[in-house]
Amino acid sequence: MTALLTTIALLLAGHALADYPLQGDFLARAKNRANPIPGVPWYHGLLPHAAIHGAVVGLITGSLALGIAEFVVHGLIDDAKCMGRISYNMDQSLHISCKLCWVVILMLWGTFS
Questions:
Q1: Which domain of life does the protein's organism represent (predicted)?
Q2: pTM, rounded to two decimals
């Protein structure tokens, strides 16, 4: 039970770290294809930001597959927010839901016995 709770806490803390101080103003603005920084392709902001999240999840869980899943899903969620399809609050709710899904997957894989 301790390993499970520790993993949840680390994933949430990792999300906060990757989504705020590690994102910075440049990536936050550059990833927005609806309002990109002139001369900077939007994917030059979104892909590195999603990769940071994927790396955090991969390092915490020890799973390359979950790191790749986080990279893909985080990028899709952030793009939906930037395009105005979802709100900031929905964006954050979906990100947290993903972290809980990764923990459920780890449980199904027998990581926490």
A1: Bacteria
A2: 0.95
Structural domain count of the chain: 1
Determine how many CB atoms are found less than 10 A away from the CB of residue 37.
14
pLDDT digits (tens, 9 = 90+) for 55-107: 999 999 999 999 999 999 999 999 999 999 999 999 999 999 999 999 999 99
Three-state secondary structure call for residue 7: helix
113 domain residue, yes or no: no
Let me know if 44 is exposed, middle or buried by CB neighbors in 10 A (0-12, 13-18, 19+).
middle
Q: Domain range holding 95?
A: 2-108
Instruction: Tell me the angle at which helices 43-61 and 64-82 cross, rounded to the nearest 10 degrees.
Output: 140
C-alpha–C-alpha distance, residues 82 and 76, integer Å? 10
